[in-house]
Amino acid sequence: MRKLRILCLHGFRQNASSFKGRTASLAKKLKNMAELIFVDAPHELPFIYQHSPPDQNCESVQSEGSLPFINCNRKFAWLVAADYNGKSDAEWKMAKVPFDTAQYQQQTEAFDESLQRLKTIFLQAGPFDGILGFSQGAAMAALVCAQQRKLKGEIDFKFAILCSGFAVNMSEYSEGSISCPSLHIFGNTEVNDRQIESRASRHLASFFDRGCSVIIEHDLGHIIPTRSPYIDDIKDFLRQFLQFNT
What we know:
- The structure is a single chain.
- The chain is α/β, with parallel strands linked by helices.
- It is 25% helix and 19% strand.
- The chain has helices at 16-22, 24-29, 111-125, 136-146, 198-206, 230-242, and strands at 4-9, 34-39, 43-45, 47-49, 75-77, 92-94, 130-134, 159-163, 182-187, 213-218.
- The strands form three sheets. It has a six-stranded parallel beta sheet, sandwiched between helices.
């Protein structure tokens, strides 16, 4: 059987490299079933800091009177707030207010640019059997699922895996109206995932046809779980698509 090719969309203020690192355990446990392909979102973000925040992706730490870090990896987004000023000039900016865990609710702009990026990726690096999105990447993937019929021939895939997702700009869609087979993975209480509320992920799942959607709830926070029984459920979902690749 040919392995499933799954396009992976990272979360807000991440990049393909960091998301690949965070999902290394998942990729290892799915190595006989799937190949994960990681890409950067199109919208580059400025570096925002408070007082000496730790960041494992940076090579230097703050010295007195200097910027917090140098040589940091660039960060990207699929959706941005209305006051987004375009491509980052890579300068550091002090946060005007404390970081708000509900900021994702204001990041609703620039879908068309991100959709065009995905069209190019499917053309140049496809085909893909499925899309996996994490956090804001899941919100972006859900919007693509909602337009799947309209995008036929440009963005074709068989399933979506939406992890810690939430709905953005989906007011025109009704409950159960999205027929794309989907797997929804999220924390089962407000405490366990402090970045995306579980009710937000459940709300997103409600837009998908229950007849072809699966929900996995876990107690491990804002991550994609890879221990049993969760990884077994993920594999069970993927097996139904392997039959088409014999």
